[in-house]
Description:
Blueprint: E1 3-8, E2 14-18, H1 24-30, E3 34-36, H2 56-68
Antiparallel strand pairs: 1-2, 1-3
Amino acid sequence: MPLYDFWNRKTGKVEEHKLPIAEKEAFLKKNKHLKSLLSIPAICDPVRMGIRRPDKNYVELLKRIKKANPGSTIKV
């Protein structure tokens, strides 16, 4: 379920709400004091962010590729 940013006209603050895409319009009709803000979804790779480690088999594959290609810039 995506997170949406809304500007609260009463408080002047930005609020974040988690709701299904299909319910967004109904949510805005119920909450006239909120205005939808355009935002970019945070899509990221958990391995690159350091949340999860790469699989051991993947690391071994990278090591073999690096060894077979001298001068490779692959970081293992």
